[in-house]
Every structure is written in structure tokens, then in C-alpha cells.
TrEMBL record:
Pfam families: Cys_Met_Meta_PP. Its cofactor is pyridoxal 5'-phosphate. Keywords: Pyridoxal phosphate. The lineage of its organism: Bacteria, Bacillati, Bacillota, Bacilli, Bacillales. CDD domains: CGS_like. SUPFAM superfamilies: PLP-dependent transferases (SSF53383). This is Trans-sulfuration enzyme family protein. It comes from Paenibacillus mendelii. Belongs to the trans-sulfuration enzymes family.
Length: 395
């Protein structure tokens, strides 16, 4: 092929910007590197990159510049040395657990842990000879009593996302350290804005970024943050081998989410407390589970280890679940849904103690709407079914 011909056709195909230009032409938002592959002109460059994969860009199941940008920010916010992003919170959780245990090991986990995490620990991992004991996370005597000679990991989630019970993070991490076990915490509820578990001795922090960090219910993602040593170990094994990586567009959306996270969390915190305090005054409510309320049995511990509160909480009522579902049907602002952290307020209703029970638990997610509108909404929906329950019962 003649040289002019080669150069002529390459105008269509060759990337025309200088890939070493770190200024991104002044772009104010993180550029999306929509590329699986990063190639080299010379073999010595290729060999150098391959010998230290995570400091270079070779292939996007390894290192993508857009994802890496988010990882650096998350590490900084959580006060950790390094972070890895994953395709979902569960990919981050399962990978980080797998990175710290092997066949024959024993794990102790808080019994109120996120459902799929409980299934992974309690049933899936037993296939590989890894057993888990679930304990009441509030009770340090229970943690101590569950310790076995082969206990290698404490798995925490504080607060838990249905009952909003806390674990004493400093007590748990010092107990784990005393037996040479590692600790992981799911910090999705508090976010890095309101709780810094690494500073309290936790080894790895995991997040579902799907919730508050995304903030707009438009992406699914997860992250693990910790020391460079633990993150490197996880990167070489679970990250590269399971391959549950985050795509660059998602990383760009989550990076955008981070810019407003502190502002959104302030609003969530104040609105959540307003709605929770309102629920506490309702005659049909037996108990509100929100660690920011003075009535929460672990409120003092919450003040010690968190600097703020997010807006997911629950209330318990001596009312049948069918009635509360009718209440949920009449809410205008609140939608019925599970995943939280987005704009819209949400509810879910569950029975406590079986289907015949007359006791229910309602999980409330307070979104970005005006909290006074949300309170009015809750009250109008209750009035509708309150009237209905004597005359034209909806049930
Ligand atoms: C949603 C959630 C997860 C799982 O995250 P995904 O992104 O859905 O995989 C884990 N832990 C908590 C506390 C969650 O709320």
C-alpha cells in the first residue's frame, strides 16, 4: 500500500487526540473512555504495562480511565488508600468476601444483613466449606460467643436496612483483630458522608452505589474500598477473574452523582427526621426505627460513630399487613418499591411474625420532595382507609 493511501484512510480510523493529554481539553465532566482496549506502539511499552496492569491501561476488565477516576474519588471520600468499582453492590460484596476467606474458614455476620448477602454467606458459601454464624449485631457477648478457632471474617452492616440496628464498630473491629480476623462493612445506608468505618478499624468498606451515590435510580453499581494491599489482592483475583466490572458510562453517571451527594444527603437527613418524628406521633404506630431519633435504643452509639443520618427507616404498627398495603395504595408521592436513594419517596410493607400476624413493618424511604407534602400524603392516605375501615371497608 502506498504511503499516501495509508495516511489517507487512517484519517477515518485513528484517534485524533493525544491520549497522553491529561487536560481533556478543559472538559468539566469526566470523559467517558468508551474503549475496551488500550494499545501500544512498541513492545517495550506493552511489556512494561503488562508487568504492572493496575498502574497502566491495557484492557477495560482491569483498568478503564473513567472508572479509575471514580475509584480514586471514592477512596478519598472514604479515607482509604484504594477502591475498586463493580457492576453492582452484590458483585462488590461477594468479591470482597471471597477475597478474604478460603475453604474451611468461618465467618460471623450480623443477622439483620441485606437479604442476598445473607443467602450468599448462609447457603451459597457452605458449598465451598465456608460456614457462617449469624448473630444479634448489637450484642458483643454474642459476637464473642460465636468465635471459633477458624473464624477469619466479621461481616458488618450498620445500621441494618430494615430494623436499623447498629453494631459497635470499634468494639467489633478490635475483637476481630484480637483473633486475627478481618472485617467488612456494608456502608450503603450512611454513605461516606456520614460514616467512615476505615477510621474505626474496618478492613474493607463495601457500597451499593445504586442507592444514594447514583441518586437518580438510573444505574446499578458497587464499590470496595480499603488498603492498597487488600485492594490489590482483590484486583488480581476476584476483580479480574469474576469480571464483574463497572462500565465507563456508569462510572461517569456515578461521578456526576457524587458532585451533589453531600447536598442531597443534607436534604435526605433533615426530611427523613421530620417524617420519622411525625410517624412517632401517630396513634397507629407502635415504634419507629430510626437511629437519629432520641427514642432509638442505640441513639448514643449512633452519635458516636456517625456524623449524620440518611433517610431510610421503618415503623412498626399493630395493624394487619393488608390494611397497610391499602394505605400504601392511596399514597400519592410515595411509590411502592425496594431500591432507594433516588428522587422519589418509597414504601414497602411486610408482616412481622407470619401471614396471620396483626403486626406489620413499613419501610419508608424519604426522597427529595418537600417533607411537608410527604407528611400530608401519609395522613390523607391513612384518613382514607381509616374512614373506609368502619363503613366501606376496602378489605
Ligand atoms: C441494594 C443493597 C445492596 C446490593 O446492591 P446492588 O447494587 O443492588 O447489587 C447491598 N447492601 C445494601 C444495604 C443494599 O441496600
Amino acid at each position: 500500500m502506498a504511503q499516501e493511501e495509508k495516511e489517507g484512510s487512517s484519517v477515518y480510523t485513528t484517534v485524533s487526540y493525544d491520549p497522553t493529554d491529561t487536560r481533556h481539553h478543559g472538559a468539566i465532566s469526566v470523559p467517558v473512555y468508551q474503549s475496551s482496549l488500550f494499545a501500544f506502539e512498541r513492545y517495550d511499552q506493552f511489556d512494561a504495562a503488562f508487568s504492572d496492569l493496575f498502574s497502566h491501561h491495557v484492557y477495560s476488565r482491569g483498568n478503564n480511565p473513567t472508572v479509575e477516576y471514580l475509584e480514586r474519588k471514592l477512596a478519598e471520600l472514604e479515607e482509604g488508600e484504594a477502591a475498586r468499582c463493580f457492576a453492582s453492590g452484590m458483585a462488590a460484596i461477594t468479591s470482597s468476601i471471597m477475597s478474604l476467606v478460603r475453604s474451611g474458614d468461618h465467618i460471623i455476620c450480623v443477622n439483620q444483613v441485606y437479604g442476598p448477602t445473607k443467602e450468599f454467606l448462609g447457603s451459597y458459601l457452605s458449598r465451598f466449606g465456608i460456614e457462617t454464624t449469624f448473630v444479634d449485631g448489637r450484642d458483643m457477648v454474642a459476637w464473642q460467643a460465636a468465635i471459633q478457632p477458624n473464624t477469619k471474617l466479621f461481616y458488618l452492616e450498620s445500621p441494618t436496612t430494615m430494623m436499623f440496628e447498629l453494631q459497635d464498630l470499634r468494639a467489633c473491629t478490635s475483637m476481630a483483630k484480637s483473633i486475627g480476623a478481618a472485617t467488612i462493612i456494608d456502608n450503603t445506608w450512611a454513605t461516606s458522608c456520614y460514616q467512615k468505618p476505615l477510621s474505626m478499624g474496618v478492613d474493607l468498606v463495601v457500597h451499593s452505589l445504586t442507592k444514594y451515590v447514583s441518586g437518580h435510580s438510573d444505574c446499578v453499581g458497587g464499590a470496595v474500598i480499603g488498603s492498597k494491599r487488600l485492594i490489590d489482592q482483590l484486583s488480581h483475583h476476584e476483580y479480574m477473574l469474576f469480571g464483574g466490572i463497572m462500565a465507563p458510562q456508569i462510572a461517569a453517571l456515578l461521578t456526576r452523582g457524587l458532585r451533589t451527594l453531600p447536598l442531597r444527603m443534607q436534604r435526605h437527613e433533615s426530611s427523613g427526621l421530620i417524617v420519622a418524628a411525625h410517624m412517632e406521633k401517630q396513634s397507629y404506630v407502635r415504634k419507629v426505627n430510626h437511629p437519629g431519633l432520641a427514642s432509638h435504643p442505640q441513639h448514643d452509639l449512633a452519635c458516636e460513630q456517625m456524623t449524620g443520618y440518611s433517610s431510610l427507616f421503618s415503623f412498626e404498627a399493630d395493624q394487619p399487613v393488608e390494611l397497610l398495603k391499602e394505605w400504601a395504595n392511596r399514597l400519592q408521592y410515595f411509590k411502592i418499591g425496594v431500591s432507594w436513594g433516588g428522587f422519589e419517596s418509597l414504601v414497602t410493607v411486610n408482616s412481622i411474625g407470619g401471614t396471620q400476624s396483626h403486626s406489620s413493618i413499613v419501610r419508608i424511604y424519604v426522597g427529595q420532595e418537600n417533607p411537608e407534602d410527604l407528611i400530608r400524603d401519609i395522613d390523607q392516605a391513612w384518613q382514607q382507609i381509616g374512614q373506609g375501615s368502619t363503613q366501606n371497608s376496602p378489605l
